[in-house]
Amino acid sequence: MPPETNPVPAFDVVVVGAGPAGSAAALEAARAGLSVALLERGPYPGAKNVYGGVVYGRILDELVPGWWEHMPVQRWVTRRSTMLLTDSQALTVDFRTEDWGRPPYNGATAFRAELDGWLASLAEAAGAVLVPSTTVTGLLRDAAGRVTGVRTDRPGGDLTARIVIACDGVNSFLAKEAGLFAQVPGKQAEHTSLGVKETLALPRKVIEERFGLTGRHGQDIEVLGCTGDIPGGGFLYTNLESVSVGVVLSVVGLAASGERPEAVLAGLKEHPAIAPLLRGAELKEYSAHLIPEGGYDSMPELVTDGMLVAGDAAAMCLAAGIWLEGVNYALGAGMYAGRSAAVAIAAGDTSRAGLTGYRRMLEESFVLADHRRLRRVPGLVFSERVQQSYPGLLCDVAQGFFTVDNPRPKPGLRRLLSGAARRRGVRLRHLLSDAFTGTRSFG
Ligand SMILES: Cc1cc2nc3c(=O)[nH]c(=O)nc-3n(C[C@H](O)[C@H](O)[C@H](O)COP(=O)(O)OP(=O)(O)OC[C@H]3O[C@@H](n4cnc5c(N)ncnc54)[C@H](O)[C@@H]3O)c2cc1C
């Protein structure tokens, strides 16, 4: 493609979507001295955004040094747990450390309206123009097909740019319109989950007593085995004066089950291991949102002439069982997108070739390195065995191990395991092959 010959655009960069990816992209592009517009359909950043509630902010060390002094935080996560459930059992691996309760911290719970507002304010302070209440409705292109800007729902709302950075979230109409998903195998629904979440108010003192926390310390719990026949999982996170509880459900599995998502969530809330933690809590908010959970193999092309795509819009959310992280990947991808845009504009080449540095930066960073290493995990986590059989198997083993059944002698672990495997219909060869996949991915 020849170098750009269009009339001078209104902005160097138009970023679509003021979520974490968009604000990071706008921040980095504005810092590089570019003129930047950050368009957001909501009345303010975060107005429409949903997530479970935990941010792992390490990437902010690079983007906003000393971020923990300024970021709006509910609690610092000092306790992380993974809980396996059957209808009547619960096996929890629970880890806590005081180290995560002091700088540079590990993770935090935060409200999206506050977090997204703060991130967007950083982009504005760097010189980006935030334009809320503005929905982008399509792409502008020149005769050669190069992206040259966006159409918006404002009267006369076309906005031209040297580069468009699409950070418009899980359903990215812009990435689809640009044809970036053309080569992704399968239908989008197969790579997508529905997250439903409730925020429940509880007094601060009650939260601290129930979850064994002090001060600003917080706990996050990931749950497996709580979604019945529907592939998925659950979560429970502590805020200062509320807890967030939710389930994440495969869209295809949910449709096939005929179940209502709120009924699945109600089931989790009633589980004997969860109900005591929520007793007396008052419902403050119910929300639902899609999550791109297909990982590396479901990602679109990341670049076309005049356009980059970052964050959930490029399926960069990491959903790997014990990890449900998307904000940090969105922040990283947005930052590299903003940087790549600046490099391309400085070089006078905003074509696909001029933007290839973006993919390279992502491959060299945690964003694509993690996704590449964990590419088999979404398949493993959503498999029938991990969803249905293993939680029961491990709970049975734990129950056998901890049951005192005198005068019978105590059974050995091997016998407990083989008995539980038989009862739960788990074959040794499947266990070994899943253990191999897990070790290759997580090891
Ligand atoms: C139930 C649930 C639980 C989750 N839990 C966690 C968690 O605990 N921790 C974590 O890190 N991640 C979690 N995630 C994932 C996380 O929310 C996403 O990965 C992250 O928000 C992606 O950021 P983003 O900026 O790419 O997209 P988004 O945050 O979705 O932002 C997209 C932005 O674009 C705007 N937009 C969309 N279309 C247009 C348009 N046409 N014009 C203008 N603006 C537009 C939207 O309003 C929005 O502000 C969870 C997600 C869900 C749904």
Task: Provide tags for this entry.
9-stranded mixed beta sheet, alpha+beta, binds flavin-adenine dinucleotide, 443 residues
| Annotation, overall tally of beta strands | 19
Distance between the termini: 43 Å
Radius of gyration of CA atoms, rounded to a whole number: 23 Å
Query: Tell me, what's the shape?
Result: globular
Helix coverage percent of residues? 25-40%
Helix-and-strand structural type: alpha+beta
- Each distinct ligand: flavin-adenine dinucleotide
Mind summarizing the main beta sheet? 9 strands, mixed
In words, what does this structure look like?
The chain has helices spanning 20-31, 60-63, 112-125, 173-177, 204-211, 251-257, 261-270, 275-278, 327-347, 357-364, 366-373, 377-381, 384-402, 413-424, 428-442; strands spanning 11-16, 36-39, 54-55, 75-85, 90-96, 108-109, 129-131, 136-141, 147-152, 159-166, 192-201, 217-224, 232-238, 242-250, 282-292, 303-304, 307-309, 318-320, 323-325. Strands 3, 4, 5, 6, 11, 12, 13, 14 and 15 form a nine-stranded mixed β-sheet that branches. Strands 1, 2, 7, 8, 9, 10, 16 and 17 form an eight-stranded mixed β-sheet that branches. By secondary structure, the protein is α+β, with helices and mostly antiparallel strands. Strand 9 and strand 10 form a beta hairpin. Helix 1 runs parallel beside helix 9, helix 9 packs antiparallel against helix 10 and helix 13 (384-402) packs across helix 14. The protein is globular. The mean pLDDT is 94. The protein binds flavin-adenine dinucleotide. Flavin-adenine dinucleotide (FAD) binds at residues 16-22, 39-42, 48-55, 135-136, 167-169, 195, 197, 246, 289, 291, 311-313, 317, 324-328, 330.
